[in-house]
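User: Predict the full complex structure for these chains.
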Amino acid sequence: MSELERELEQELHRVLDAVAARPIPLRRAVHPRVGLRALVGGAGAALAVKVLTGVAVAAAAVTVAGAATTGSLNPAVWGQAVSDQVVKCKQQVANSSQHGIGDCVSSFASQHGAAVSSAARHNGNGNPNGNGQANGNGSSNGNGNANGHSKDKSKDHTAPPKTSSTSIPTFDPEPIDQVNTHPPVTISPEP
Amino acid sequence: MQSSELEGAEPAARQAETERYEPGSDADFERLYRNTYRRIVGTLITIVRDVSTAEDCAQETYERAYRGWAKWRPDAPVEAWLHRIAINVAISDRRYQRLRQAGEVIRRLGRPAPGADPAVVAERSVMVQALKKLPPKQAAALVLRHYHGYTNREIAAALDVPEQTVASRLAAARKHLQVVLGS
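Assistant: Here is the predicted structure of the two-chain assembly.
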């Protein structure tokens, strides 16, 4: 052993033995690491929550979009909206060379039909055909007209017959009979 | 160094190697900690800059060892395995040493006059200071050989290098140490 090695050994023992003789401290606690499975599970759970939230938001957006078409899903309000649209369409026709307001009103009505159909589908009580009958109370003529125009459009009637080209469809409310104003009707059986 | 000198110098290290440990057993790991802590700290003191850092590195060593405890193979020398982890921890600590130096200076300004604390004695030792100036793996080889009394083969197992590498590393370390002490 060289002089350096002997000196090194003695010095290391002199110094380090004293340090090593000190009390041994408590071992530091080891916190378990989060496992990969837990991470994936957590991420999967978070993803599921996000997907469900997305579906809910999408459903809400469809409902809002449907309401935004007229401002309300109420058929009575819809009837008023159609009346307003007819006025607008008349003005458009007057300012252009287009004949009739059928296409103009039809496009507006088809928007409402699709919106109401989607809303009804998401509410779980509607007709998925999207014919505007999802609300089912039938209190508005507007609904019926919307369906009719929508079907006509699908047939691509770009040139409607001229037989009544000057007649403009009206949306006046149907007359309502007052109570007790008509005599009772009796129908006799045919021989 | 003679083999008889080696065997007489470190009975505790030899005893630790003959102890039986069950991988993954918490009780056995706690026993391993009690049996080896002082020697691990002794090795770390010569590599890192002070005793408190050596103690921190020792705790980090046992944390890492605990995470791999279930995978440890009983046929491998357990203390060599611990020393390998400890030296890696010390090397990592040295890399960040410069970043800590500014804060250390501020901390020491308020420190009272040192007494006969063994830690302070160790920090002031010329030999320990010289060892700290060596590359960590060279310092570790010297300490494992001349303080713990490991053979070159055991050091090779601890550092996971060929035995020939240990011999050349020890030779380089002695030469380097002479230069540092002579300057």
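The mean pLDDT of chain B is 82.
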